[in-house]
Records
---
Amino acid sequence: MTHRLDGKVALVTGSGRGIGRSIALKFAAEGARVVVNDLDAGPANDVVAEIRAAGGQAVTCAGSVTAPDFAERFIGTAVNEYKGLDIVVNNAGYTWDNVIQKMTDEQWYAMIDCHLTAPFRILRAAYPAIRELSRTDQAAGRRVVRKVVNISSVAGLFGNAGQVNYSTAKAGILGMTQTLAKEWGRLNVTVNAVAYGFIRTRLTGNAAEGGTANIDGRDIKVGVNPELLAAMERGIPLGRGGTPDEAAGAVFLLCLPESDYVSGQTLMCSGGLTGI
């Protein structure tokens, strides 16, 4: 089997569960050394153990992406453990919904901090390492293309009722993507985004089951009303929600050498859904 990412060092936030886990496992299966992150060390360690059991290389960097010191620690883990930095995927996220008249400042800033400020800090922290690696490559006569993939949503492209906080943050990440594509092109870094539609994870399951997720000390209700869930899937041209592995495939496409001249773009991974 050809390992398309041999020798690459990949960092994936929110990769202890769901889509992030599938991205980390896909990268590792293709030969990348992966820095796995999750809010909790347990799920991250489980993914690292799974990768190592399959013969791959991975290390854990647990903690909230919104912590002020997280970005430097995350980038430092890659540089210290693997002496490189080739792929950054800003995947960590969740939703905390309400209509605007009922939405609190806490709900608003929680989404902005997680989906927009955290990626900003991570990429800012990554710049010195990427700049030095680029200079080393240039001095050695090598052309190495590095990759950033930011995760957005169809809600960031079209809006979604009850998600003014999430939709705004996911729209903002698209502006960040296009700006950094312009700033980092000279370093041979491509910066793209994947906008997901409805992907089946624990955060988008059946709300009738009463699930919650503890995020930064808050118990957030997760899931979608079952009637709304069925209606959403009927509106998808492919007739169903996507799987985490299918979601990971879209990110993988933007990390292959074949996408080395694709930058500043948003790839929709939505089963053909083009609006909400």
---
Amino acid sequence: MRYTLQALGKKTMVVIPACCWATVAGFFPSSSLKVPVLHTAFETAAITASGVKKGLMARGIEDVQVLAWAGDGGTFDIGLQALSGCAERNDDIIYVCYDNEAYMNTGIQRSSATPFLSWTTTTPNPAFKDTPKKDIMEIMAAHRIPYAATASPAYPEDLLKKMRKVRETRGLRFIHILSSCPPGWKFPSELSVKISRLAVETRVFPLYEIENGRKYTLTVEPKSLPVSEYLRLQGRFSHLRAKDVQAIQASVDEEWKILMTKIHSKRKFVNGAALKGNSKIQAPKSK
């Protein structure tokens, strides 16, 4: 949050739904953020931010950034409908999902962001989560929004660069930040940054950006460490057998190949839309 507000500046309004940050930011009339904060319902971060932006514009105020800041439960699950609507309209807001891969604020229940074979209180031993994590970045890319990117607190320079880019872009901008959670992931808090860095270095959470739903760019080159280096530090994966780790490694490798194919694609585009034969399909201009 500090990095984000540092990049966006003081002319920023923050919309926070029910999530861990609803308590961190503080309550009216005081806030730890030193910018206006609006608390809203669990599922309405995107549409509330959109309404705030429209209200500002109606008053002739166009130099204020409106930032929705929500967890994975309020983004991948309960808030996806509102977010999709805002993305389809290309509403001029910034939406940040800080993803700790479960409903951590209400008791560590699984969300659709929870990884394959992970422990949560609603996927206990032996009924661990048996489906993969929802690919929120591809969902947002499918809306053809101007900008979407992944980020990590373990790579602050990359995060700041992307937030500065977001500040200069108009339309809906989506940032997906992996946010390690000591109690939910079962590790000592002093390992928070190390685990966040390992998520990138093992290619579990690659850092990249997508422009207009088409142009993919890798922003941090990972070391390609084995995924076991990331998994072994987290108690939520302590039950994994060797074949389970191999299955997760195979999935990570496959997803990396798919991402690299998109990054190195040689297709030609006109205004963000692919050329098909002799036809020229122009994407609508960003608002």
---
Amino acid sequence: MTIRRIVTGHDATGKAILLSDGAATNVKVRQASGGLVSTLLWVTDQTPVNVSGAQDRAQREIGVAPPAEGSVFRIVDFPPTDGAAMSHEAVIREMGLHGHAQGGAPSRHPLMHRTKSIDYVIVIQGEIDMLLDDSEVHMKAGDVMVQQGTNHAWVNRSQSNCRIAFVLIGAEEPAELQGKGGSH
């Protein structure tokens, strides 16, 4: 399903204007991750953000993690999968997290990963399980989560797609993990 993205800004006189209104075009199908579809909506490189100009900040290549002092806004569609045929190494490489230490406990699922970020998560449609190192939580449409740099995997064990909106903001390394293997 196409995602409509609306971006506002300012003209040369400072008047609020519509910069764009149409289908979000930075869409990636992640085959190693079971065919999930990730639509990048916006990226910032610093905080506070300079909101001047008309540059489309979604027209770039970026992995799952946000810039160190920036943010990423994306919507991800997770198809049903059990993850049995997935390669953890291929998933990490596809997410743009290759070459970074995992941190936390050993991976219990091929989709396990961690980013140095605080993530605001909103389940828009469907349901999904979020696995942590030794526990999991079931989420359904309307549920929200604040995820603080934890090792995790999103696993859709249902029979239907699950759509989630993510806002990832660069964060410091959790004190509990400093010196224990880093992050993605």
